[in-house]
Design brief:
By secondary structure, the protein is an all-alpha fold. The protein contains 4 helices and no strands. The chain has helices at about 10-15, 25-40, 45-60, 65-70. The two termini are about 10 Å apart.
Length: about 70
């Protein structure tokens, strides 16, 4: 189960405020791009959270370990 989008961990993840040892390469790349895009003001916070959340929903089993790492 993917945690709700309103959890503060999502914001910390995409802002780069806290670094997590992610194991899923696609998720790593998406988060890295999100952090860079936010720092350049190219996208909104809500948009990047929505994109990463959608990825995690689609590949829930593949990102399960990373969800445990981020959300406990």
């Amino acid at each position: 189960m993917i945690p709700e989008k309103d959890r503060p961990e999502w914001r910390m993840l995409v802002r780069g405020e806290k670094s997590y040892p992610l194991t899923n390469f696609v998720l790593q790349m998406k988060v890295t791009k999100a952090v860079a895009d936010l720092r350049k003001n190219q996208v909104s916070l809500d948009k990047v959270i929505d994109e990463i959340y959608a990825l995690c929903q689609k590949y829930e089993k593949a990102v399960a370990q990373d969800m445990k790492t981020i959300f406990g």
